Amino acid sequence: MSLSTYTTTSGFLLPSIHSAPPFFTEQPNPTTQATATAQWSRLILAYARHKKLFILRVEDVETSGSDWDEILRNTRINRKILPGYLSNIMEAMVAQNLAVYEPVKQTRSVLVYWRLPEEWAEVLYDWVISTGQLNTILTFYDITDPPLESLLTGIPISLLRKAISILSKTGRSQTIAIADGEGVRFLARSK
Amino acid sequence: MRRGVGLAAFDRQEQSKRSFAALSSELSRAQIDDLHSQLAHFRTALAHFATTHRESIKNDPTFRHAFQQMCASIGVDPLAGPRKGGWWAELLGLGDWQYELGVQVVDVCVSTREQNGGLIALSELLRFVSKLRGVSGGEITEEDIVRSIKTLHPLGTGYQIVEVDGRKMVRSIVKSLDDDQTTILVIAQEGGGRVVEDQLIRRKGWTRDRARAALENMLLRDGLCWLDEQDERSGRSYWVFSAMQWDV
Q: For position A69, what pLDDT does the model report?
């Protein structure tokens, strides 16, 4: 039996370690486990980026049919990552700022940072400029669900808020109360 | 005036091309000469540095550390070079010094293996090596040991530095497998990396305790294998990564 990379139906290239049965078990040897955690974090981030997934839940491995099935399970070798293990990996990712618990004050679901909030802030600002919406008041909905699909389509509101607040620190955004909730206005970069 | 149409235009063009070529080769020759003189200058300065400071570099760990940091910050590896050891290393005699230390590291690792199973704390290794070198060898630091182990790398000795609970340790286990581990490795290689207790009991006549102890040691003590708790047949199997076939 040899271990090789595998391309999933969604076109994601799984690393060869994903076809190694022990990859799905938490390792009692801390050195070995550190390697495994690093591999899993990298895999989760790469897959999230590939499929534009933001939220990873422990439940995603408890029931099949989730968006994450292609990496959390390997049906070719009949293995899946166990919920307790996934939860520990999520904890490690949070500790390294590769993810945050979302919502806060629980540990069963995380928002994965395949782009850091700082990077999202730049993506957001670039989108505003390229769509000519500087100085326009936008609702959050205008950003998360624009008529023309963008990189920001489907971005969770909490992450969007972070990006907006990062931009506000450099005077590039302003949150405004509008009739039906909150809006935001983006401003030209001050010289 | 009409220009560049008649036959004479070809000549004119040819001539200007020739002039430009001459000019450009003259310019690049000047640049090369300049570089040569700079390089010669650098070599002289370096040789001077080496002769003045060779002894300090070899004997004074603080000076050596500063020197190595300087090398790192300007992107120069004092051991690298086209020739054996490199001309920089030859000038300083640092290459020989480093390799000598490497040999001493190997000496200590091999001679303490029976006691420690091929895993030794870096501080302990330093203590042994210092003892081996005697007072005349000059003081050495953990950093020097780490560097020496790196210079051993091209030899494929399998020496590596691992961190166990924040404590740096040097492992030379790859070459120091005991009989039970060798047996396990062989079985693992036959099964694509997978080993279970029952195989060892059935095929090698081991007791369950022996099989379990050997496997758990490889898993927990040596980090030589990984655990699979979802094994369909035995529930708990061990996978020796080095015995698995990886298509990269």
A: 92
Contact at CB, A22 and B248, closer than 8 angstroms? no
Distance set, CA A24 to CA A37, A76, A125, A180, B228 (Å): 11, 13, 40, 47, 7
Structural domain A117-186, CATH architecture: Orthogonal Bundle (1.10)
Token look-up 């790192």 returns B72
Q: For B19-54, write each residue's pLDDT tens digit.
A: 989 989 988 999 999 998 988 888 778 777 777 777
User: Nearest Cβ partner of B232 from A4, A23, A78?
Assistant: A78
* Residue whose C-alpha is closest to residue B47's, from B5, B87, B103, B7: B87
Q: Tell me if residue B195 falls in helix, strand or coil.
A: strand
Extents of the domains making up chain A: 6-112, 117-186
Q: Which residues of A touch B (CB under 8 A)?
A: 1-5, 16, 20-25, 27-32, 36, 78-80, 82
Does the structural domain B179-243 have CATH classification 1.10.10.10? Answer: yes
The set of residues, in sequence order, having a beta carbon less than 8 Å from that of A76 and lying 6+ positions away, is: A6, A19
Domain ranges for chain B? 20-92, 95-175, 179-243
pLDDT tens profile B167-183: 576 777 664 557 787 78
Instruction: Look at A27 and B194 and tell me if their CB atoms are within 8 Å.
Output: no
Q: Which residues of A touch B165 (CB under 8 A)?
A: 30
Q: Which CATH superfamily is domain A6-112 in?
A: "Winged helix" DNA-binding domain. Chain C. Domain 1 (1.10.10.570)
Query: In chain B, which residues have their Cβ closer than 8 Å to the Cβ of A38?
Result: none
Q: Count Cβ atoms below 10 Å from residue B163 Cβ, excluding itself.
A: 12
Query: What is residue A56's predicted lDDT score, i.e. its pLDDT?
Result: 95
CATH 1.10.10.10 fits B95-175, yes or no: yes
